[in-house]
User: What shape does this take?
Amino acid sequence: MSNMLIEVLKNEQKCNNKTLKNLYKISFMTGVNIKYKTDFKDPVKLVNLFLITISLMGLCAQYCLVWHNRHESFVESADAICTANQAWISIFKMIYLVFVQHKFYDLLHAATDGNLLYDLGIFDLAINCKEQLLKEIKDILRDSWLDIRRQLNFFIFSCMMACGFYMFSCLFVNYYYMHINPQNFTLQLRAVCFDGIFIVVVVHCSALFQILHQLLQHATDEDIPRSERVKYLLCCVQLHDRIYNYYAKINSMYKNPSLAQCLLSMLVLCVVMFMANVGLEEDITLFFKMLCFLMAAGFQIVIYCYNGQKIITQSGMSPSSWYNCSWYNESPQFKYIINMMVLRANRTLYLQVSGFTTMSHMTLLSIVQTSGSYFLLLRNLSGMD
Assistant: This one.
């Protein structure tokens, strides 16, 4: 029966790889091929170095524009500041990916392969609900990958829209005015790979919690003989350990980079609100610029907080999931395991933002509120009251 689970996971892997097809292509274009495990000397990483160099050159043009307009209204430099901040986010992520690509590969392919569920042991026990458990696991994984597919498609579309707008507007301006327009130079596409991996691994981690909770609901069912219940529970303990280790790896990989994402996204949202307040009626292209930034930069921080909240919610349900089975009618060993796991799971798991805060709905609300406060300050300093 374990072979049946592995066969199901192998079939799901084919569908999962189709879902990540565009992500693989984008990662290759950015010089970090996450489809394969490569070392630091992989020639494709020369593309990454080239893109970083071009981006830094673009930043020089952006800041030259800001300096040139230092005596003008802030509106003249707002667009350049937004694109420059997005460029910094992309540069940080590209550099980070170069050095830890192998670790991201392990995280991502643990999700696509479903290998944390291999050798689980439950399907080797003499229980009568194997088909039902197999179906429930399959349904949870499919729902999680449907969520991943929706988030990835919308996120990639948002970034492509931002890139397309700035690229073609540049070509249009250059064609008519025959000069380079530096404020429209920077593209945001290179951040997609990093954040796309985050979507996949965090949603998958949340799905693993759901699978664990579903398995625990059957721990004292009549379909599981009493002689097998302790072994069944130990298999659940093993899965809990795997999930916790997977969560710990995700947290360590995104803990520090997420701080730069939060700070720069907050600044971008502040500037976008300012641009909307002072120039929406004067410049029709400003509406499209705002939409691009809100969908690309705004959605970047949304996926961190929205998916981080999934981990908080699911891990917070773990103690009650262990406790709610009919453990009081079971053997002393069964009761001891339940007691230990309730204590062990009693600490809610958070994806941290460099030790300052967590990826959660409350953090997202705080970022929006802080951006609004800085927007009001910026408006007052610009004399727009």
